[in-house]
Design goal:
- It contains 8 helices and no strands.
- By secondary structure, the chain is mainly alpha-helical.
- Helix 4 runs antiparallel to helix 5.
- The longest helix is centred in the middle third of the chain and has 29 residues.
- The two termini are 29 Å apart.
- The relative contact order is 0.12.
Amino acid sequence: MQIVYLLIALAVCITVHEAAHAWVAYKLGDPTAKMAGRVSLNPLHHLDILGTIMIFVAHFGWGKPVPFNFHNLKHPRRDAALIAIAGPTSNLLTAFLIAILVKYVHMPLFLGNTLQAIYSLSIILLLFNLIPIAPLDGSKLLALLIPRSREDWYQRFLSQGPMILIILIICDRLIDGATGFSFLGTYLQYGYELVTVGLFLAT
């Protein structure tokens, strides 16, 4: 049954995450994602093949990047950051709502386990996507700190991001296999615990 819970959680969490990106982009004046059908709660519009595979292989991953056109944004850097943070924020809100339900509502075993899987994956996607490497959302937030004189360097960094990310994940797995210590695993573990404590205190 664990695979069923994971598949449901995957569909829900990535769909909410990517749809939030698309909706905020549309509200900020860029119809690109909406025209591509991304302002939608249909999981098929948002799942990325590699990102989905990484969920099963490495226990974290990503959805299909939401397209947007900088030229349609009134304040490109700021608005790009707002579009980026919309995804992790949607995952945080999802986890918060589930924390309230779990704390105050008695529910059947299947539903409880499903919500727990959605909760866990929501937080993992939140934390993983804040890493400042493309195509993850943290790379867009990083743009706010990059001087305009380094814009060319930043664009090259973004273009090389997916390869950098894959190499880092592979290296982390090799280090974990050799030493038993995972940088990403430690970050996700302590981040998960910190977010969980915060959410349940807030409820």
